[in-house]
Predict the structure of citrate synthase (unknown stereospecificity).
Amino acid sequence: MMNEPHNLLGRPATRYRGTDIDGPTLAPEGLWVRGRNLNDLIGQTDFESALWHIWFEGMPSAAERDAVRARLAAFGRAFEARDASVDAAALVGGMGIDMVSAAATGFLRGIDGVRAKSGTSAWDDDFDQMLACIAGAPYLMRAALGPAIERLEPATSHAERVLRLCAEGGAPSKAGIAIMDALLIAWHAGFGYITPTVLVPRCAIGTGVTLAQAIAAGFMSSGPNHVGAAFEAMRWLTALAAREGNGTDEAIAAVDAVIDQPGALLFGFGHPLFVADPRPPHLRALCTGLGFEGKHLHLFDAACARARERKGLNPNIDFITAAALLDLGVREARWGVGVGLCARIAAMAAHAVERRRRPAFGVNSSTARKLLAAVPVGWL
């Protein structure tokens, strides 16, 4: 019997680059989570099932999915009833600190109070902490924005809870909830640890911080160049939709104006890894299939066609997220970042726990000394 292959650190070879959780492929371009193509999950399952899948590497039974949903609802009720973490986020947000940083402050304050109010869990402590952080994130963000949170529970799913916290216009439609579910799954994982919002929690957990603190670190690693493009895309689409005239013509002119301006950025287009992010066309087709169409998605279509014609540019997840959120009734552009981070907690937590099971700094002392000797001068 052959020995299992090992990598240069002497550990068994991982499924993806350094991890067994998720990772991208380039030929063909795709995103994978626990051996399943991410696009096969988007629109085919719900966010609660995706959480189970990333943690336990398998799809849950109906009873297991419902149990996850019930646990998220229990945490939601606890956050809705106010908690020290919510108060901390509201206080910092009231001082003018941005929504994401304020939410991170809530996690740094700690969520033990919420977990105590919600009773014991049937699962391991780490999975339960992840669920608590996922349940709490939209409440912390909403508290940072003010005013006081209206009563939301009971909600039928976590997607509905997020949508009701960030959108305006009353009870969401069934199609709207399905779109939010799809967006959460599209953002929850797929790139392994190469994205800062996942890499930073992996690094932080090695110092001995709590899982909630590691997730706060992940929140703080988002910015204009990572996740933040959805914020700019929402502002751009909002301004475009406010103009008079034919929407298609306005979108074409707006894209041309950006492309023709040296050094200007067309937010929501291009990708540092992919020629074409595989999620936007899949999500756009899903919207059509659900009969979910709106002004901002039509502007998305016109802008994508023009950017492809002029520069061969393809939309990324930020742009389709911005268009869908606006047509869902989300008017605060900061939720363009917030929704992505609410979902990305799943990968943050899974990676942090995988990393914590290794030595504190990833390797033992003798291996670290060998690796240091191999690092070229001037690399960092």
Remarks:
- The beta strands are 22-26, 29-33, 36-37.
